């Protein structure tokens, strides 16, 4: 058997193209500029993908795998990229037509709901549309032809036809059976998906134990399906238990990047919980989450169920151990026991103060019952969440997860892989929209140089595990993959942080501009620090200096002569917005593809904050969706234009870090007045509080936006229905300006109430359906 594979792809200098199967990689030949070919004898390749290499190093690969139908020998292919592979729900394979000699195929297509995809051609004078068969997110047209022809793809809805944009496509006839993969057509009408953002812990049902769990998520899937939406966006669901207090409620400070939080277990599915019914009801009726009491009760019940298990004879449990013990489960479970016994300081863990797999395994064997509980905990959580995921798929609902930028310095990750983290530095954010003083998250920064050695294996394993549960994910603080704001752990203050990596100015540079590093800067090894400085010495390159963030607020800056302050302003502007574009593009181009290549999840960035030009350019080149928020424009305007959002974006009214729509209306009267007059085009007197009607206008603006995904917080959807109003301040999930914030928001009603509210469901569904 002979197979010929052809593809048009333009590589950079030094790069070449390969066709990869699960077993091997075939180097292709560039027969003409951008035209690559591979001829194989005695082969039968049915699944493969194209990848770009440079000196045997993988540069990038396709987002999905091609499925090559049998019966052809000439395959003309197209590169398949993100994010469109996410948009098409899979359907069962259909039988192709019997009599044909060519197959035209589109692997992924951005087809709006309620439309059908067809092909029209010169074969019949452009009069008769040929419907494409949908088979497992692949669209195919099987034709019997004997000559060259031109054709185009069209969308059909009722009696209307929308033609794809661009010139006619050409097909050159071959006498033998030929297969051609076409580039995805571009239509004016683009597919959009709609969804709701809500933390899992915030869900409330009749059966909750005071905090949202996986059964509540199943019920919320019913609600999302009933209103015609597609996506549920969650906050991180990893375990955060460290102090066993309310401070563990912070979902971004995980004790493991792989373990799920035990608070999400649905206890009633494991056995009889009637003994705890009175406590459950009391917790479930609270306005806010009682984090400590809910988790304490859940652990008590789960340990009781664990004591009754015969896990040695449970083949499913044993398979779970075999699949996960070596990579992360052993470290997490032993860590949890040591944390409970000796506290969070690794130095108090005797011969296990430094992780060793063999010593941890011995500890497991000597403490089988204690360590086994945490293995059982994760087994139950994994099984329950997988069942919910399968249920979501049956309902055609996607789950979007959240990838935290950091892990706790006291986490199992840091204990197991200490060389991957810089524990003497803290990750954070410079002053921005969320906090005028900046933020110190206390997470250790990453040792990216060490991570690069094994191809970012830790990140890849982390993403692969996420992909077991989620179809899409939010990259928390994507700016951290370009550069991180790092703060000396001894200093603690965000305003004294610096970017890493960076190109600091040398001592000679500053002296030549008229600055005195000894008088104007903080030394990197200083113990007692003074914020009243213009520069901070680089932690890694002694004698090199960073401008201090927000230095214009300091007395030292205000006392500078006019000429010197002008020089400082120019230097500051260059450093924070121009100097590092190439450097940060390079670092992101190495790190982000490692995430993308680990799974087929749709990647969505949280790209808010101090942006350089490198960020949108890189996100666009990698087809990572940006985040667009009307009140946080990325250009020099007061309010962003929802009709001008890039298609590859997520539109939202806010995030878990912002106030809700109703609270925002009352925060800044001048901005609200501007929005009311110029955006909503209202002439009546400005209301002090937003009305349900105005809230609906704002929500509809976002639904009508040009973004591929529209995902709004549940609170903002409910702002359209006055009967669900509560105190706007209570609706807020987090306040980034407060590092001691208690993450305790709960839905004020139960999911069953929303499902039973037919008027609400009909209203929300109609806001979307008129676009489809």
What is the secondary structure topology, with strand pairs?
Elements: E1 2-8, E2 15-20, E3 25-27, E4 29-32, E5 35-41, E6 47-54, E7 57-61, E8 66-67, E9 74-77, E10 102-106, E11 116-121, E12 130-131, E13 133-135, E14 138-143, E15 149-157, E16 160-163, E17 169-171, E18 178-181, E19 193-197, H1 214-226, E20 231-233, H2 277-284, H3 291-306, H4 315-342, H5 357-366, H6 368-394, E21 398-403, H7 412-416, E22 421-429, E23 439-446, H8 448-453, H9 457-466, E24 472-475, E25 484-488, E26 498-500, E27 505-506, H10 507-513, H11 517-520, E28 521-522, E29 535-537, E30 544-547, H12 555-558, H13 562-577, H14 581-596, E31 602-605, H15 614-621, E32 626-629, E33 649-652, H16 661-664, H17 669-679, H18 692-703, E34 709-713, H19 714-718, H20 751-756, H21 758-769
Parallel strand pairs: 1-9, 9-18, 10-18, 19-20, 19-34, 20-21, 21-24, 24-31, 28-29, 32-33, 33-34
Antiparallel strand pairs: 1-5, 2-3, 2-6, 4-5, 6-7, 6-8, 10-14, 11-12, 11-15, 13-14, 15-16, 15-17, 22-23, 22-25, 25-26, 27-30, 29-30
């Amino acid at each position: 058997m002979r197979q010929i594979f052809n593809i048009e792809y333009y590589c950079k200098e030094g790069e070449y193209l390969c066709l990869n199967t699960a077993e091997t990689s075939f180097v292709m030949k560039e027969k003409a500029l951008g035209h690559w070919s591979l001829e194989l004898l005695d082969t039968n390749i049915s699944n493969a993908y194209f990848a770009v290499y440079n000196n045997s190093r993988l540069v990038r690969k396709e987002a999905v795998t091609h499925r090559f139908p049998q019966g052809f020998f000439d395959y003309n292919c197209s590169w398949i990229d993100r994010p469109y592979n996410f948009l098409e729900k899979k359907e069962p394979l259909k039988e192709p037509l019997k009599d044909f000699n060519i197959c035209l195929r589109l692997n992924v297509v951005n087809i709006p709901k309620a439309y059908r995809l067809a092909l029209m051609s010169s074969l019949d004078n452009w009069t008769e549309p040929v419907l494409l068969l949908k088979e497992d997110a692949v669209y195919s047209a099987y034709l019997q032809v004997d000559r060259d022809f031109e054709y185009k793809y069209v969308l059909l809805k009722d009696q209307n036809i929308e033609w794809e944009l661009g010139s006619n496509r050409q097909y050159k006839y071959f006498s033998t059976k030929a297969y051609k993969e076409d580039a995805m057509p571009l239509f004016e009408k683009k597919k959009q998906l709609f969804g709701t953002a809500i933390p899992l812990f915030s869900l409330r049902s009749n059966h909750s134990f005071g905090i949202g769990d996986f059964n509540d998520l199943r019920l919320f899937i019913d609600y999302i399906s009933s209103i015609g939406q597609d996506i549920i966006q969650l906050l991180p669901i990893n375990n955060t238990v460290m102090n066993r207090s309310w401070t563990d409620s912070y979902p971004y400070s995980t004790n493991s990047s792989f373990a799920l939080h035990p608070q999400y277990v649905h206890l009633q599915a494991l056995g009889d919980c009637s003994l705890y019914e009175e406590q459950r009801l009391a917790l479930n009726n609270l306005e806010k989450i009682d984090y400590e009491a809910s988790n304490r009760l859940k652990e008590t019940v789960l340990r009781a169920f664990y004591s009754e298990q015969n896990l040695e004879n449970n083949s499913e449990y044993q398979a779970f151990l075999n699949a996960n013990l070596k990579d992360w489960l052993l470290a997490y479970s032993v860590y949890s026991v040591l944390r409970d016994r000796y506290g969070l300081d690794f130095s108090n863990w005797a011969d296990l103060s430094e992780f060793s797999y063999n010593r941890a395994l011995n500890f497991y064997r000597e403490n089988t019952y204690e360590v086994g509980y945490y293995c059982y905990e994760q087994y139950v959580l994994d099984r329950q969440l997988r069942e919910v995921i399968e249920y979501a798929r049956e309902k055609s609902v996607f789950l979007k997860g959240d990838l935290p930028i950091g892990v706790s310095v006291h986490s199992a990750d840091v204990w197991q892989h200490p060389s991957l983290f810089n524990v003497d530095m803290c990750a954070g954010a410079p002053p921005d929209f969320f906090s005028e003083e900046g933020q110190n998250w206390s997470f250790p920064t990453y040792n990216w140089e060490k991570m690069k050695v094994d191809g970012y294996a830790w990140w890849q394993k982390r993403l692969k595990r996420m992909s077991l549960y989620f179809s899409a994910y939010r990259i928390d603080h994507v700016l951290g993959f370009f550069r991180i704001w790092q703060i000396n752990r001894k200093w603690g203050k965000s305003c004294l942080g610096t970017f890493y990596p960076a190109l600091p100015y040398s001592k000679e540079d500053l002296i030549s501009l008229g600055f005195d590093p000894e008088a104007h800067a903080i030394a990197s090894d200083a113990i007692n620090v003074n914020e009243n400085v213009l520069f901070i010495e680089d932690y890694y390159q002694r004698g090199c200096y960073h401008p201090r963030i927000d230095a214009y607020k300091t007395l030292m800056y205000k006392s500078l002569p006019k000429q010197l302050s002008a020089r400082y302003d120019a230097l500051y502007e260059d450093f924070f917005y121009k100097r590092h574009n190439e450097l940060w593009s390079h670092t992101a181009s190495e790190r982000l593809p490692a995430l993308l290549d680990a799974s087929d999840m749709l990647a969505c960035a949280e790209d808010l904050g101090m942006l350089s030009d490198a960020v949108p350019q890189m996100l666009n080149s990698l087809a990572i969706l940006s985040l667009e928020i009307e009140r946080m424009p990325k250009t020099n305007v007061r309010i962003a234009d929802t009709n001008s959002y890039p298609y590859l974006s997520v539109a939202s009214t806010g995030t878990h870090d912002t106030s809700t729509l109703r609270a925002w209306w009352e925060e800044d009267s001048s901005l609200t007045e501007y929005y009311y007059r110029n955006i909503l085009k209202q002439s009546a007197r400005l209301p002090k509080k937003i009305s349900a009607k105005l809230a609906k206008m704002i929500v509809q603006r976002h639904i009508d936006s040009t973004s591929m995904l529209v995902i709004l917080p549940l609170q903002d959807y409910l702002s359209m229905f006055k009967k669900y109003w509560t105190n706007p301040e209570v609706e807020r999930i987090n306040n980034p300006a407060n590092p001691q914030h208690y993450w305790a928001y709960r839905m004020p009603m139960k999911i069953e109430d929303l499902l039973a509210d037919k008027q609400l469901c009909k209203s929300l569904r109609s806001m979307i359906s008129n676009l489809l």
